[in-house]
Amino acid sequence: SSSATDSKDLRAKLVLLGDSGVGKSCIVLRFVRGQFDPTSKVTVGASFLSQTLALEDSTIVKFEIWDTAGQERYAALAPLYYRGAAAAIVVYDITSPESFSKAQYWVKELQKHGSPGIVMVLVGNKADLHENRSVSSQDAQEYAEKNNMFFIETSAKTADNINQLFEEIAKRLP
Ligand code: GTP
Ligand code: MG
């Protein structure tokens, strides 16, 4: 028979969605490799990475991460990546109202076509650029609450809240 710790191990398909340039790939790179790339290239199609995370209660979560391409020409591919996903991270850039609108588009699409019970998280990235903020934390928080999402602001550049983001997702997995 398996031990208590064995039985708690989880595997979770996770997808990142959001406008091109908001920092999806940088968030993943920061989480998986602990690095930041200021010259990050636009993603073509999607990229896959996996990373395990040990929680305080000794649960091990293996995230299978699909980092999608935000450019409009790839929008039709998104269902391939969010299909069957246990969790979705919808990212915008706190300095870009357009990217916040685009995030709302993805939330609606996930509500219509995502897996029932998918854990959805709203992420305001580039929190280090607070001097150029144009999406208020309060507006984003209110939007997230209305849509039953967890909300967090992150910086892939400084690493602020990156681990917390993935820990919060792990806690919410079914
Ligand atoms: P697509 O692959 O086209 O969908 O874009 P993306 O969302 O993956 O963006 P990417 O991670 O490639 O980052 C785009 C640009 O934003 C790069 O120049 C990054 O260096 C920069 N960037 C990403 N995250 C941050 C951050 O937290 N702070 C700052 N200041 N810049 C960031
Ligand atoms: Mg990318």
Helices, strands, pairings?
Elements: H1 4-8, E1 10-18, H2 24-33, E2 46-54, E3 60-68, H3 78-82, E4 87-93, H4 97-113, E5 119-125, H5 137-146, E6 150-153, H6 162-172
Guanosine-5'-triphosphate (GTP) is lined by residues 18, 20-26, 38, 40, 42-43, 69-71, 125-126, 128-129, 155-157.
How far is the N terminus from the C terminus?
23 Å
Quote the beta fraction: 25-35%
Main pleated sheet: 6 strands, mixed
Order of helices and strands: HEHEEHEHEHEH
Structural class: alpha/beta
Number of strands: 6
- What is the alpha-carbon Rg in Å? 15 Å
Roughly what percent helix? 25-40%
Based on Cα principal axes, name the global outline.
globular
Query: In terms of per-residue confidence, which ranges show pLDDT below 50 for 5 or more consecutive residues?
Result: 1-5
Ligands, deduplicated:
guanosine-5'-triphosphate, magnesium ion
Strand order of the largest sheet: 2-3-1-4-5-6
Mean pLDDT value = 95
Q: How large is the count of helical segments?
A: 6
